Amino acid sequence: MPELPEVETTRRGIAPHLVGQTVTGVVVRDHRLRWPVPRGLSGHLVGQTLQGVERRAKYLLLCFSNGTVLVHLGMSGSLRIVRAATPADVHDHLDLVFGNQALRLRDPRRFGSVHWVAGDPAHHPLLARLGPEPLGDAFDAAYLHAAARRRRVAAKTLLMDSHVVVGVGNIYANESLFRAGIRPTRRSDRLTRADCARLVQAVRAVLTAAIAVGGTTLRDFVREDGSPGYFVSDLKVYGRGGEACPACGTALKATRLGQRATVYCPKCQK
Ligand SMILES: [Zn+2]
C-alpha cells in the first residue's frame, strides 16, 4: 500500500514535469474507483494550467486556479507520466492529458479515488479533521504528549491514529517505536514528555529516510513501465520477528496489535 513516503516521492516525481503545463484533455476509462470519478472533470480542467502539486497526508493535491483535484492511491494505485499516445493498460483508469504527455492513474484494486474540490481543499471532509503532518512544525513533543495523555490506547495505536498525526502507517510505526525504545503496547497516557520527544524525532527520521530512498528511484515515476517502489530496504524490526535485534541481539517478538503485525525488541523497548 502506498504510504506517506511513496506519496511524497510521487509528488516530487511528477511536479517538475507538469507544473505550469495546461490540461488539454481528461480521459476517464472507468469511473468506478472507491468513489466514482466525478463527472464533468473535463469541463473543470481543460484549458486550466497546473499551478502546483501538494500533499496532505496521503492525498495528492493537483492545484488549479479554479479548484483542486484530490487523488488518493488507495491500496494499489500509482501515478506515472507517459506519452499521451501510450496505449492504456486494463488497470489505467484515468489520464490527465497535458499536450503530448499524460498523468496516468493505474489502480488494479480500485481502492483509490479522485475528487474535484472547488473551494479550499483544507475544508474538504476527507481532509478537514486530519491531524498534523509528521514532518511539519505542529507535530512536536508538547503536542504529542498532550494527545497521548487524552487517550488510553497503545502507543502504536496512538501513532497510527490520523487524528493524532497523519501518514504513520504500520511499517513506519513499528520502526519509529523501535528507534525510540518504546514498546508498542505501552499505554499512551504513560508516555512521558521525554518519550514523546524521542518518538517525534524517530517518526521524522524514519519517514525522512524513506523519502530519501524514494528520491533515488524518482526515475521510476516517469518511466512508462515504472511503478512506485516500497522503501523497505532498511527495516530494523518490521517483518523480522524471531530474528536478532540489530541493537542487542535479543530475539525480536512478533505479535498483533489492533490486528496489525507488530514487532518489537523485548529488551530495548520498554
Ligand atoms: Zn534489542
Task: Report what the structure shows.
The protein is built from 6 helices and 10 strands, in the order αβαβββββββααααββ. The chain is of the alpha+beta class and 270 residues long. Strands 1-6-7-5 form a 4-stranded antiparallel β-sheet. Strand 6 and strand 7 form a beta hairpin. Helix 5 crosses helix 6. About 3% of the residues have low confidence. The structure holds zinc ion. The site of zinc ion has 7 residues, from loops.
Largest sheet: 4 strands, antiparallel
Strand content: 15-25%
What are the segments in which pLDDT stays under 50 over at least 5 consecutive residues?
222-230
N to C succession of SSEs: HEHEEEEEEEHHHHEE
Alpha-carbon Rg, integer: 20 Å
- Overall geometric form: elongated
Distance between the termini: 29 Å
Q: Treating each run of at least 4 consecutive H or I residues as one helix, how many helices?
A: 6
Task: List the ions, cofactors and other small molecules found in this model.
Answer: zinc ion
Overall pLDDT, averaged?
Answer: 91
The order of strands across the largest sheet is 1-6-7-5
Helix content: 25-40%
Please identify the structural class as seen in this structure.
Answer: alpha+beta
In total, the number of strands is 10
